[in-house]
Design goal:
Layout (H helix, E strand, L loop, with lengths): L5 H17 L5 H14 L6 H20 L4 H35 L14 H17 L8 H9 L1 H4 L7 H4 L10 H34 L5 H32 L17 H7 L2 H12 L9 H19 L3 H25 L4 H20 L3 H11 L10 H20 L3 H10 L2 H28 L11
Helix pairs in contact: 1-2, 2-6, 3-4, 3-5, 3-6, 4-5, 9-10, 9-17, 9-19, 10-15, 10-16, 10-17, 12-13, 13-14, 14-15, 15-16
Length: 467
């Protein structure tokens, strides 16, 4: 089940919220956990056993790590717990990738396992790992209620696509949270904005990408349209889903961290990655980069640490070489910026640094979206006129006219211009009165229009399901 679907919006969510708000305080986690299991089992019920098994193993590991705190046994238990979690993730997500590459390297024909990827396994695995590590470090108290820990791991708003919620961030809310009309109202607004980003912007951009892939008259201009469209589609798809998750969490009394902060306004790649998928970046920083030594080591070891983190970041996104290359691509750029490029970028006019980041990001998402590195390379070469593609064709101009409005809307929406303008307007005496009346109408209108698009159309993919 996905958030941007009629069954979720008009059946699952209303029923869950009614039962949740009606339940006494001590029963709310039980209602939320049951709803989360139903939500997860909706699409693939067999893999709920895997998730429950992972939760139980993480719960037991936390108990015993706490019991043997300060001894070598706590470290052994932590290692075993992390190894099991990584083992589950490795088997279900990467087994066939390793077999395929082994076959290619050796010339053998070891049969593929053809294991289906459990939805959300990358997200809930990272949450379990961070929980057990934090218990070992003593930065959080062990959770002695299996129900509460399961609620944290399986909570449906962030279960299948993040943000990656740290146990420390919602530890107190698991047992003592308030539900106010202000939070519920904010949650509804935030959810609706995320739904609109997904349905009204990301989906049409995805259609343009599909049109490009199916076109027999791809031109240089069409390759650039595709690069812009796929970059914006991935942003609006994932940030929209994060907005919906944050909104749902607030309705249920939880405050999840922000996951995106207008990354396309960045003036360096370093800044871009402070603004893009913030929860993933902070996870790798705290559980991989810093334990490796971070930047408090020799220059060679620092470079090694950066490459390890970005190799894993790319590999986390998918079991394919294009994701690994995508991660290493950013590793090289970030390393160059740390070594010398940042000080030069600070002296260059901002319009040039913005263009630099947008070009880097556009190329990166062509690699990210490609079926393989050969097609990614061909696409990038064609963007710079290094192929057989003509500069422009009649078909390209037709699709440019057809999708110009959504491209312009997406470009504006990827900046804080609208938000800043609305905030300034609402601070005036007249503006505050208008916003008070107009805001609910806009939210309802966006929800109804999004619903109409979902009813009318069949194109509603969610890119991060594969991760």
């Amino acid at each position: 089940m996905v958030f941007s679907s009629i069954p979720f919006l008009y059946y699952f969510l209303p029923i869950v919220l009614i039962l949740y708000y009606m339940a006494p305080g001590k029963m709310k986690n039980g209602v939320l956990l049951l709803a989360s299991f139903i939500f997860y089992a909706w699409g693939e019920p067999r893999y709920i056993v895997l998730m429950i098994t992972s939760i139980l193993l993480g719960y037991i590991a936390g108990i015993y790590i706490d019991r043997y705190r300060g001894t070598k046994y706590a470290k052994y238990i932590l290692f075993l717990s992390v190894a099991i979690s990584v083992g589950f993730l490795g088997y279900f997500k990467y087994a066939d990738f390793f077999i395929s590459n082994f076959n290619a390297a050796t010339g053998l024909s070891v049969p593929l396992l053809k294991v289906a990827l459990p939805i959300g396994i990358s997200f809930y695995t990272f949450q379990l790992i961070s929980y057990t590590i934090d218990v070992y470090r003593g930065s959080v108290k062990v959770q002695r209620s299996c129900l509460n820990l399961a609620t944290y791991i399986a909570m449906f708003p962030q279960l299948i696509a993040g943000p990656i919620v740290r146990y420390a961030d919602i530890e107190a809310s698991l047992t003592n949270r308030k539900h106010t009309f202000g939070d519920i109202s904010y949650g509804i607004r935030r959810f609706t904005m995320g739904l609109s980003k997904k349905v009204l912007i990301a989906n049409p951009l995805g259609e343009l990408c599909d049109v490009f892939a199916a076109s027999g008259e791809q031109s240089v201009l069409f390759f650039w349209m595709y690069a812009i469209a796929v970059s914006l589609q991935i942003y609006f798809d994932f940030s929209g889903y994060s907005d919906m998750a944050i909104g749902l969490g607030r309705m249920l009394g939880f405050k999840f961290m922000e996951n995106f902060n207008y990354p396309y306004i960045s003036k360096s790649v370093t800044e871009f990655w402070r603004r893009w998928h913030i929860s993933l970046g902070s996870w790798f920083r705290d559980y991989i980069y810093i334990p490796l030594g971070g930047n408090r080591v020799s220059k060679v070891r620092h470079i090694f640490n950066i490459f390890v983190v970005w190799f894993l970041t790319g590999f986390w996104h998918g079991a394919a070489w294009n994701f690994i290359i995508w991660g290493l691509y950013f590793a090289v750029l970030l390393m160059l910026e740390k070594m010398f490029l940042l000080k030069y970028l600070a002296k260059i006019p901002q319009v040039i640094t913005h263009a630099y980041v947008l070009l880097i990001a556009g190329i990166s998402f062509v690699i990210f979206d490609a079926a393989n590195m050969a097609s990614a390379g061909a696409c990038i070469m064609a963007m710079f006129g290094l192929g057989d593609a003509p500069l422009v064709t009649a078909e390209t101009l037709y699709y440019l006219r057809s999708y110009a409005s959504i491209l312009i809307l997406a470009i504006i929406g990827a900046t804080p211009i609208v938000k800043q303008t609305a905030e300034k307007f609402s601070q005036t005496a007249l503006g505050s009165k208008i916003v008070l009346v107009a805001e609910p109408l806009v939210v309802v209108g966006l929800f109804l229009v999004s619903t109409a698009f979902l009813v009318d159309g069949s194109f509603n993919p969610f890119l991060y399901f594969r991760f």
